[in-house]
Amino acid sequence: MVDQQHVHTYAAETANKTDHLLLAASIPDRSQPLPPTTSTAFDRPQNDTMAEFLVNLPNELLALIIEDEDLTVNDLVNLRLTCKRTKHFASSARGRRLFVDLKVWDKRNAFNWFSDLLLSDLGSHIRSFALFEWRRKSGKTLPPRDYVHRESKIKPDYSCLQDISVMYCGDVLHDPVRSWKKAVGAAIHLKAFRIVNFDEARSVGAYWLGVYPHKFCSNDELLGSIRSDGLRVLTLAHIHVSADMLNSLLDIHRETLSIFDIRSCMLVEGRWFGILDWIKTNLSHLQTLHLDVRYEAVKKRNCTQPLDSWCPLYVDSYRARSPYALVRHRSPLNLRLEGQQKIRNGLSELLSVRERFQVV
Hints:
This is F-box domain-containing protein. This protein is an alpha/beta fold and 360 residues long. 29% of the residues lie in helices and 20% in strands.
């Protein structure tokens, strides 16, 4: 059995270190099956019932814990990795078994670190990862200098990834890192993909549309980079997405998509009822539909304001400069349907009374 008192004593001593944490590796309970990749929950990480230890552990102690056969989830729920190599334990059967799902908590430097990890003995066993990005102090974060000029002849292989989550906190000015498109596009066997903005209060502000067009379009770029041959789960929450991109993505995966979860999203240059009509007609294999939407953004006929990085102080100024106009339904379109027949019947009923959901 692991000396739990020694581990927790060391954890307390190292809790105040300033080493920058890049990756967290989750240890599942061996007596319980791994959670299915089809889960659509996107609660905040800090609300998880299995809280994480925000500490660093050296590789020597980490290897000692991993190799112990009596290790359970009660000994240490989550181990924090430092920026050291993990080859000396990744090649063992125990290491391969435990370190399968990775969470990345930073930006470009974490992405490069994650790429290096895929090149190690552990790389072929990683099946899923989640990017968690929170508010930044500055509007732009550059990668560390040692990564800027680095060139590697060996490129990491992301094709084994089956579950990718991009979760961030902030308005459209704090969008996910575009470099993650490399991993998303190369994951040809991707089965579950999620984009979630935890900051619901500011994420649907239509007055941002067009003032920073290169920002809210990054969600479309991430969705457009998916090259999977069998996407089954798609979750979008509190983001902007264009109608063309959403239609295209649903059409590509119409034969495999079984779970579609979209909540509090802004549809740009399109109508939600048009999307629902298309889903009813074409997504015959859909088993679960969760829908809670209300906002649309349509392009203005006459907009002479230039699109630059000028930052106004009032909401009215934002809306005046934006080439888009906000459209809001009087009541949200809210559906939670399970089963193909219930989905068809529920969509038919909603579409038949669409006049009740007039826009304002």
